[in-house]
Amino acid sequence: MGRNLQSGERLRPIDLARGHGLSTQAVRNYEEAGVLPAAGRTLHGYRTYTPLHARALRAFLALVPGHGHRTATSIMRAVNRGTVDEALRLVDESHAQLLDDRRTLHAVERALRGLEPAAVSGSDAGSGSAGRFIGPLAGELGIRPATLRKWERAGLVRPRRDPRTGYRVYDEADVRDARLAHQLRRGGYLLEQIAPLIARVRAAGGPEPLEATLRDWHGRLSARGRAMLAGAAELEAYLRERG
Q1: Domains and CATH numbers, the chain
Q2: Can you give the three-state secondary structure of the chain, one letter per residue?
Q3: Is the pLDDT of residue 68 over 80?
Q4: For residue 198, what pLDDT is reported?
């Protein structure tokens, strides 16, 4: 790595920035964050980069669409520290998350296909059962009770109150709505996008209102998968050039 940094063409920050629509300050910030290897310095203290730095920048920018800025930064830091196994572990984790998100999408589709009109309306479903309290339901979903309260304020769930204790009670329809909200949140949807979808499912008597959303979700997962492939190609090129 040291040999590559000391030989070859010298590049200025503007040379790296120009081809990617970045500012020179962004290039310096990426270096300071460990995304790029440390720059050389002239006798007057100016940064000098090499084609290896340009390759590192291309790799990072290619990784961001598929892995996100934070993970892409961690991947490049690991590579530049010489801990390639750690970088590959982070790549694997992103792929595992993508696979999990695909499974979540399929679970949503299966759940919607299995919805009964009476359950979708959410008016009387589960009213004769004891229901669940906020703590157990939050634990089952892997979220905090405060999140369920936030979803309630946004209209995603509508628990009733126990007349004796005042505690929130989630009946069968509420549990279903909470599951759908949780799955859609994991798919990247905002609360203000989810609320009308759940309201329409309740009113429509079927899952059809979500069909366009699910198609979009499929498209975004496919785009993420292809972005990961493009990022992997640039990362491999950078690893080869580092030697």
Answers
A1: 2-94+225-242 (1.10.1660.10), 115-206 (1.10.1660.10)
A2: CHHHHHCCCCECHHHHHHCCCCCHHHHHHHHHCCCCCCCEECCCCCEEECHHHHHHHHHHHHHHHHHCHHHHHHHHHHHHHCCHHHHHHHHHHHHHHHHHHHHHHHHHHHHHHCCCHHHHHCCCCCCCCCCECHHHHHHHHCCCHHHHHHHHHCCCCCCEECCCCCCEEECHHHHHHHHHHHHHHHCCCCHHHHHHHHHHHHHHCCCHHHHHHHHHHHHHHHHHHHHHHHHHHHHHHHHHHHC
A3: yes
A4: 82
